[in-house]
Specification:
Blueprint (H helix, E strand, L loop, with lengths): L1 H4 L3 H23 L1 H8 L18 H20 L1 H28 L1 H22 L2 H6 L2 H43 L1 H8 L2 H11 L3 H24 L1 H6 L3 H27 L1 H26 L12 H42 L20 E10 L5 E11 L3 E6 L5 H6 L9 E6 L2 E2 L5 H5 L2 E5 L9 H5 L8 H10 L3 H5 L18 H15 L3 E5 L7 H15 L3 E5 L11 E6 L2 E6 L1 H7 L2 H10 L1
Helix pairs in contact: 2-5, 2-8, 3-15, 4-5, 6-8, 8-9, 8-11, 8-15, 10-14, 11-13, 11-15, 14-15, 19-21, 21-22, 23-24
Length: 609
């Protein structure tokens, strides 16, 4: 948390100063009680004489004596009633100053707390954007959402909300204890005897809080994952009449979370009553012991005179004042433990290592002139599963290379290595003779456009989806790209045209319309290298014809790497690469591979059936 709070050192310092002033003014406001009891109500008939400030008497004795002297002198000169009004006015003044400082200390904490929460959320989101795709194959999307929402909210409610108390309460405790020691070191020493027992009891209650909070937040992640899966697979759930099964799973998770959260909340709720009980017991013990000494006229050590009754009452009032910040501090400590459990889950993302890194001095990448070359490339996932083995491939500039093979052959992984969504395990990939790991990722991906089987669109307007990733795109450029992609006509049929919102992931459009917008986006970017990942595999015949026509326009005069499911779409490719179990087993034109009579011919014959 220190890294998030460091930009607000000035505001924190102001909060510290205001809390100190608040405590001091509180002490002064209660100090008025002593002369009220001593002089106005004749509790003490002592006649006070002014002691010069430069005398050899103890400073404490001079302060107390002269304060009493000034009040008694004012009462004798102007009357007891006026002295009462004067002291009441002074008490009101100090109370106003105290409450103003208290308000100010809380007010300066607001931009700190809101700023810290914003910074945590922004860092989480930025980290999510920077992490490689491989990270999210290991993590559930619902769990990521739970951390950026639920865990950050828990940090806000637990740690950030307690930040003011963590600053204010220690200051109040230190100042009040210091002043109590100044009033009566002997009585304060007796009082502090109970502090270790107080701390031990409170620590005993909060021992399991962090672990229980971790379990509760993990169950919250399970809940979010279940919701995400249900929304994404709602069509399948309904088609298989699986509502009861999904309902049972969700109710089971939420019930387990309820039990865990209840346990955490009960444990946290014990902080206030237990601390109040301990504080009350301590206060009553001090009151009984101090009262007995006042009655006997002797202190604990048996010979020195104990403090007078009004001073003892003042001591009790200040001691009572210190109990509240102790209770609040114990409550804040529990909240912090609970928040630290969520912070631990947040840090799992923030501290995740990104293996896809730019070199310290990246090589310049000015356009695409020659080609891409795979040199003895192998790739395996972190779990050790081998996906590609010793792949050698050359993709000349301006050519169309198609990659085919059964599911799991390594086609998508091979293509994902080009924009460095993954890095090779062995071998190297070069672009114009430069190893991809030696150039900046941003420069590399700027040369490439992607059209996937499932078009990735955003809950925004048609215009913004086409212009996505192209800064400052004009309306004329967007319309031109849409026309090339065979999308302009259906866009203009919409009531709001290019300003039509397409819904979550383009849910308001058909599959073919979504794919044409995806192609228009790639056309607008105008990349020299185009990657197609089964771009027409999920379309009906009519949509495929329209989309394929748009793809043909997009592929003209550009280097294309196409993963194909329907072999009819890649018959005219310059070279077809056939993959099997992570290896290139055949390569050539359509006619050459058919004549070869191997894997490709088998795939072609199966589709012909």
């Amino acid at each position: 948390m220190r890294q998030y709070a460091s930009p607000y050192k000035g505001l924190m310092a102001a909060s510290v100063v205001l809390n100190i002033l608040s405590a001091i003014f509180n002490i002064f406001s209660f100090a008025i009680l002593v002369p009220l009891l001593n002089i106005l109500f004749k509790v003490d008939d002592t006649v006070y004489q002014f002691i010069p400030w430069d005398s050899a008497d103890a400073f404490k004795d001079k302060v107390i004596n002269n304060f009493y002297y000034y009040v008694s002198d004012f009462a004798a000169t102007y009357g007891a009633a006026n002295a009462l009004f004067m002291l009441s006015g002074v008490m009101i003044l100090f109370t106003v100053l105290k409450t103003s400082c208290y308000f100010g200390s809380n007010a300066v904490m607001i931009p700190i707390s809101t700023g810290i929460v914003k910074e945590i959320r922004c860092r989480l989101y930025d980290k999510i954007l920077s992490l490689p795709i491989g990270f999210f194959t290991e993590e559930r999307k619902g769990d990521i959402i739970a951390r950026i929402s639920g865990d950050v909210a828990e940090v806000e409610n637990s740690i950030i909300a307690s930040l003011s108390m963590l600053i204010k309460d220690p200051i109040l405790i230190i100042i009040y204890f210091g002043f109590l020691i100044w009033i009566s070191p002997e009585m304060m020493a007796f009082t502090i005897i109970f502090a270790p027992a107080f701390v031990w009891v409170m620590g005993l209650i909060g021992k399991q809080l962090k672990r229980s909070s971790l379990e509760a937040q993990a169950l919250w992640s399970d809940t979010m994952s279940q919701v995400d899966e249900t929304l994404g697979g709602l069509r399948v759930v309904k088609a298989f009449n699986a509502e009861k099964k999904m309902r049972s799973r969700f109710h089971d998770i939420t019930d387990r979370m309820r039990r865990r959260v209840s346990r955490v909340s009960i444990r946290q709720a014990t902080a206030h009553p237990v601390s109040e009980l301990m504080g009350t017991i301590m206060l009553l013990i001090v009151l009984c012991v101090g009262g007995a000494m006042i009655i006997s006229g002797k202190s604990l050590i048996g010979h020195a005179k104990f403090m007078d009754a009004p001073t003892f009452i003042y001591f009790i009032v200040i001691l009572y004042s210190v109990i509240e910040p102790i209770k609040e501090l114990s409550k804040a400590t529990y909240s912090v433990r609970k928040g630290l459990a969520s912070m631990e889950r947040i840090n799992k993302i923030l501290e995740a290592e990104n293996p896809i890194k730019d070199p310290e001095q990246p090589l310049p990448l000015n356009g695409f002139r020659e080609g891409i070359r795979f040199q003895d490339v192998s790739f395996r996932y972190e779990d050790g599963k081998q996906v590609l083995s010793h792949v050698n491939l050359e993709i000349p500039r301006g050519k169309m290379i198609a990659i085919v093979g059964e599911s799991g052959a390594g086609k998508s992984t091979l293509v994902d290595l080009i924009p460095r969504f993954w890095d090779v395990t062995e071998g190297s990939i070069t672009l114009d003779g430069k190893d991809l790991r030696q150039v900046a990722v941003k420069d590399l991906r700027a040369l490439m456009g992607n059209v996937n089987q499932d078009p990735i669109l955003f809950n925004d307007t048609i215009f913004n989806n086409i212009a996505f990733g192209v800064e400052g795109a004009t309306e004329e450029q967007v319309i031109a790209a849409a026309k090339i992609a065979n999308a302009h006509d259906f866009i203009m049929e919409k009531e709001e045209g290019y300003q039509t919102n397409i819904g979550d992931r383009g849910s308001k459009l058909s599959g073919g319309q979504r794919q044409r917008l995806s192609i228009a986006r790639a056309i607008l970017k105008n990349p020299p290298i185009l990657i197609l990942d089964e771009a027409t595999a999920s379309l009906d015949t009519e949509s495929e014809r329209i989309v394929q026509d748009a793809l043909d326009r997009l592929m003209s005069s550009r280097t294309t790497i196409a993963i194909a499911h329907r072999l009819s779409t890649i018959r005219h490719a310059d070279e077809i690469i056939v993959m099997h179990e992570g290896r290139i087993v055949e390569r050539g034109s359509h006619e050459e591979l058919i004549a070869l009579g191997g894997y490709y011919k088998k795939l072609n014959d199966m589709q012909a059936l």
